[in-house]
Amino acid sequence: MNAEESKKEQMVLSWNTMADFYDRTLAENSLQASVMLFAAVRARDAKSICEVGVGPGLSSMIFISAYMQNGAQYYNSDFSEKMIEIFAKKYAQSEFANSSEVKYENLPQSSNIEVSTPEEGTVKKVYSTVADNEALPYSDDAFDCYLANLSLMLVNDPNKMLSEAYRVTQKGGTLGFTVIGNPEKQVMWTVIFDAFKEIGVKTDEKNKPPTHLGDKEVLKEKLEVAGLTVKKLFYTTSNFFMNVEEAFAFSIMTHLFKNLYEALSEEKATKLKEIFTRIWHERFGDDSLTPTSAEFLVAIAEK
Ligand SMILES: C[S@@+](CC[C@H](N)C(=O)[O-])C[C@H]1O[C@@H](n2cnc3c(N)ncnc32)[C@H](O)[C@@H]1O
User: Fold this and answer.
1) Which has the least CB within 10 A, 71, 121, 143, 154?
2) pLDDT digits over 20-63, tens only?
3) Residue 261 CA to ligand 1 centre (angstroms)
4) Residue 183 class from Cβ within 10 Å (0-12 exposed, 13-18 middle, 19+ buried)?
5) Is the pLDDT confidence value at 71 over 90?
6) How far apart are alpha carbons 265 and 200 in whole angstroms?
7) Complete edge-to-edge strand list for the sheet that includes strand 102-106
8) Hey, what domains does the chain have and what are their CATH numbers?
9) DSSP per-residue letters across 256-288
10) Element (H, E) at 250
11) Which residues lie with the beta carbon below 6 Å from any ligand 1 atom?
């Protein structure tokens, strides 16, 4: 296994570990961006939709139920098999499981998945699979719509992911991406940073959220280099309605702070949580009218 493969394996492991927590706590918080993205790419008008880095697929359930047109097909994927397992389970427990109007198949992981040609009809077809955004298993020009909510800034090589997005989308198709925006607008991360500072532990670049694509010019250029025409480019605020326990658990669970947290003595770890709790209550607790938030950059493009 080369260095890149081993890094990828670590990343998959980290998302697998976080998947249940993400499903319980974060998925509904990422919906603000996700539902907007489905609207912005006009997924309701699309016949063949590809969503990558889908996570546990809460937004997929809303799309299938509320906006997906009859006769359309929707392929979603994630490189974390645990995320796709959660989606499959969610689907099996949903109202669609026994519906004749939606047909679902969880496709085995493969390097070559034949995307069907959408047919006129009343049935909505839904497929999920485990796939890496940087090497999609689908044929060229298979989709008229492609979405990636909060995934592009996480991959090893965003250029590779974008060239795959370009490859699987038909000429004239619409693509939508959201990424983490400007560093100074990532309000939700300030509490853990300030708590580490108060216990005297230094943080560095490795602990910062991935904002490297959060500048409009940087993202626009990457999309253009991949061959896409940018149609809309804008910032949006997303709020997070977590309680303090969830916010702390999330902060120390991500790869940003996991190692730093695990290296703390028991005493320092307890102190960190106390300080985190105090700051969180001051800024976002019962006496504050402000929920925590992050800023995302949204790009809508055309092939
Ligand atoms: C922040 S979550 C967003 C999930 C979902 N789109 C949402 O809005 O809730 C990022 C997702 O991207 C997935 N991911 C990260 N890198 C990936 C890659 N290279 N290929 C496929 N999925 C990836 C993770 O497993 C995770 O489910």
Assistant:
1) 121
2) 999 999 999 999 999 999 999 999 999 999 999 999 999 999 99
3) 23
4) middle
5) yes
6) 13
7) 102-106, 124-130, 73-78, 48-52, 143-149, 169-180, 292-302, 229-240
8) 3-183+210-241+291-302 (3.40.50.150)
9) TTHHHHHTS-HHHHHHHHHHHHHHHHHHHSTT-
10) helix 244-253
11) 15, 27, 30, 34, 52-55, 78-80, 83, 132-134, 149-151, 154-155
pTM: 0.96
Q: What count of Cα atoms within 13 Å lies in the side-chain half-sphere of residue 14?
A: 16
Spatial neighbors of 271 by CB under 8 A, at least 6 apart, are 199
Give the DSSP H/E element, type plus range, for residue 175.
strand 169-180
> Which residues are CB-neighbours of 157 under 8 A, at least 6 positions away?
134
Per-residue pLDDT of 96-131, as tens digits, reads 898 999 999 999 999 999 998 888 888 999 999 999
Residue 18 tokens read as 């976080």
292: left (phi over 0), alpha (psi -120 to 50) or beta: beta
